[in-house]
Design brief:
Helices cover 29% and strands 26% of the residues. It is α+β, with helices and mostly antiparallel strands and 428 residues long. Among the domains are: 62 residues, Uridine Diphospho-n-acetylenolpyruvylglucosamine Reductase, domain 2 (2-Layer Sandwich); 180 residues, 3-Layer(aba) Sandwich (Vanillyl-alcohol Oxidase, Chain A, domain 3), CATH 3.40.462.10.
Length: 428
Amino acid sequence: MSEAHQVTWSNWSGYQQAHPQLILKPQSLTELEVVVASHTKIRVVGAGHSFSPLVCTDATLVSLDHLVGVDVIDEERCIGEIWAGTRLYHLDQYLQPFNQTLMQQGDIDQQSLAGAVSTGTHGTGEGLYCISGYVEDFELLTASGELLQCSRTEHPEIFAAGRVALGSLGILTKIRMQNRPHYKLKECIQLCPLADMLQNIQQWKIEHRHIECFIFPYSDQVMLKTLDDTAEDLQPRKASWPSEDSLLTLCSELTKTFPTLNPYLQKMLSIFVKPTTYVDWSSQIFPTPRTTKFNEMEYQIPVAQGLTCLQEVLAALRKNKVSTFFPLEFRFVKGDDIWLSPFYQQDSISISVHQYHKQDPYLIFNVVEPIFQKYQGRPHWGKMHSMTTAQLRKCYPKWDDFMRLREQLDPERKFLNPYLEQLFLSKK
C-alpha cells in the first residue's frame, strides 16, 4: 500500500488545507478493508474539487485512486458497475468498448465517480437528474467492516440516503450507473440580451436537452450555451488563441488589481465571445478546460422562484460593486428522491457564484448568500456555504432520518471530520 506521512493536503483552489497524519492509497478492496479496520478516523479524498472542507482532517486520508475501472457490464440494460475511484475523464476508455456513456455530466470531469455522486454533482437539463440520480445500486464498506449491497430493493433506506451522503455513511467502493449508448452532442454558444433570456428561458429549457447561461452582472448580454442530441458529423472544438480560459485569467487579474475596470471589461463581452458550434461525443462536449482557479458558492432554488432570485442577486452585486469578473452560472436540474440531495423532491434552478482564487471569496458570498436563503435555497454540498444544522434541518424533510441512519452505521463517527461533526451534530 502506497502511503505518505504528515503532509499538507489542499483542494484544487488551494483555499482548503489540512495536515493529515497519513495519506493512504490502498491497491485493492482487501487493503481498503484493512485500513478501515485499523484506523479510528478516516476521510476519503477524490480529486479535491470540493470547495467546502469536506476532506480536511488531521487523521487518516484515504485515496481510492487505485480502485478504478469497470467491474461488471450489463449490456442489455446499459448499466455499468464502476469502481468508485475512477475519474470521470477516464470513464470513456472503460465504457466506450461496451457502447456506454454517462447520462449526464457537469462541465468539470476531474472528479472521482464517488466524489461526484456523494456531493450531488450535476450538469444541466430540466428533465435530467444530478449524477447521483442515475445510480442503480452501490457497494458500501461500513465502519464495522461489512460490505453492503444497496439498491431500491436491498437496504433501501441506505440506498435512499447513501447516494448523497458526503462520505459519512461509509466508503463507496463500487457504483452501478444507469448509462445510455454512446451519443453525440451539438454545442452552440452565443450571446443574447439578458432581457431576452429572462423572458424566454422557461420555453428554451424545454426545447433543448441542456441549456445554461453565464451572466455577467455589469453586462446586458449573457452567454447562452445549449447542448442537443445530434447525428451530425463530428466537428470538434478547436484551440483558439488567446483561449477563453487565458482571457478569464487576464480579466480576473485586472479586476483584482484595478476593481474599477470590472464593469468596462464585462461590457466588452462581445469582443471576447464569438458564436461557436461544435459536434462531438458527449464525454468530449460536456467538460470545459479550466485552469483559472476560483472558489465557488452554489445554491439550488425552487424552479418557480429561480428567475426572481437571479434578478435580486444581480441587483445586489451591482449595488455593492462587487469585484469579480467571473459570471454567474444558471442551470436547471430535475428533482429526485435522495434524502440529502439538494434536489430532493424539488425541480431546481442552480445559481453559482465564483470568485478568483487570489481574491477574498466572501466579498461576493456575503452579498448573495442571504438572497439564496431568502428563496429557500439549498447549498451544493461540495461548495462553500454558511448554513447551520438548524437551517439545514428545515430544508430537508429527511434530515433527522438521515442522521439516525448515519448513527446506526457509524456510531463511533469514524467517517466524520470536524466540519461534518459541526454540520451534522450541532444543536444550532
